[in-house]
Write a structure and sequence with these properties.
The complex is a heterodimer of chains A (about 110) and B (about 210). Chain A has about 110 residues and is of the alpha+beta class. Chain A is about 25% helix and about 40% strand. Classes of the chains: A alpha+beta (about 110), B alpha+beta (about 210).
Chain lengths: ~110, ~210
């Protein structure tokens, strides 16, 4: 079980650019005692110049899970990630899922836009 | 845009995003292994990962970093061999032996672009990207060593020569594509500019510096 970590306790945030078309992953990390204690990773994209969060991987609220989001940032689908993962393994699983599915997540997100 | 073009563009986007997700994984893995990396990259930064072993991707990502920086983002470059650079501190350097470097000039009428490669310095196997020197001229730069490998001057006749008429004579030292020597000769006569056969990289640098000033 991963320890809880409210968003306010993240001390590092990076946007990692994935393309010139506005695709990016945003990561928030909490570090302490020389270790990463919690992290949240999300995929963001631009649709007609408007930035949106599409999917979020969170290992800071007691269990690792993946949230699909709608255009208002509400969770529309929550799926647990594998249990008993270390944080780095959870990161690898999140990045693997993102690589396999970002395109369909984005397409479905755009299709759901009002 | 046709359906085929749209599909090709989307496939290209997918290739770029997939490659950069792998690079992002590498970066975050390094941060997780050594959170002290975060002390070198300020929180809130936009990170662009530069693969040390993929010159083409490095060049493409450097272009992306340039655009992001121009849009006002605080961009940090992290290379997969562990170096961190703040984009705004990147300083292009001219080759140390510039006075002995022969420039190879090509002018393309279709795009109105003059491209200059420094012979013996530019090598397409090196990771290179373009970075703006000023509003008229871009530098072709090694994206790992930041050595200047050449120049790219778009809107050469339509804009640059109007600002700096003396640069028209550069065309007489260039290989011409889509424009004849006679047409260039006519332009020179119209603007009373001398032909010029001997151009070296140092003189180009001096003229560009004067243009910037």
């Amino acid at each position: 079980m991963l320890p809880p970590g409210p968003r306010s306790t993240y001390n590092i945030e990076y946007e990692i650019s994935l393309s010139s078309l506005g695709d990016a992953s945003r990561v928030r990390i909490r570090t302490g005692s020389g270790n990463v204690e919690a992290f949240m990773l999300q995929y963001e994209t631009l649709v007609a110049t408007q930035p949106y969060q599409v999917v979020r991987y969170d290992v800071a609220h007691g269990y690792a899970h993946r949230d699909l989001l709608n255009h208002e940032g509400d969770v529309i689908d929550k799926r647990p990630m594998s249990e008993h993962l270390g944080r780095k393994e959870a990161l690898q699983e999140a990045m693997g899922d993102l690589k396999s599915n970002w395109h369909s997540y984005r397409e479905n997100f755009v299709a759901r836009l009002p | 845009m046709s359906t085929r073009e749209a599909k090709a563009k989307e496939a290209e986007r997918a290739e770029v995003v997939n490659a950069n997700i792998d690079l992002a994984s590498e970066f975050l893995g390094a941060v997780f292994d050594n959170p002290a990396i975060a002390e070198e990259i300020p929180s809130g930064a936009t990170v662009v990962v530069m693969p040390a072993d993929d010159p083409k991707r490095a060049a493409s990502n450097f272009d992306m970093a340039a655009r992001l920086s121009e849009s006002g983002k605080d961009v940090s470059l992290w290379t997969t061999d562990g170096n961190v650079l703040h984009y705004k501190t990147v300083t292009p350097t001219w080759p140390s032996h510039l006075g002995r470097v022969k420039p190879l000039l090509d002018y393309y009428r279709e795009t109105d672009t003059l491209r200059v490669e420094f012979v013996g310095v530019f090598d397409p196997r090196r990771p290179w990207g373009e970075v703006e020197l000023n509003r008229l001229v871009s530098l072709i730069m090694d994206t790992q060593t930041f050595e200047i490998l050449g120049l790219m001057i778009p809107d050469f006749l339509s804009r640059v020569v109007r600002t700096a008429p003396h640069m028209l004579s550069w065309l007489t030292a260039a290989r011409l594509h889509g424009i004849s020597e006679e047409e260039v000769g006519e332009l020179l006569r119209e603007r009373r500019r001398p032909a010029r056969r001997n151009v070296n990289a140092e003189s180009l640098r001096r003229e560009l510096t004067a243009l910037t000033a």
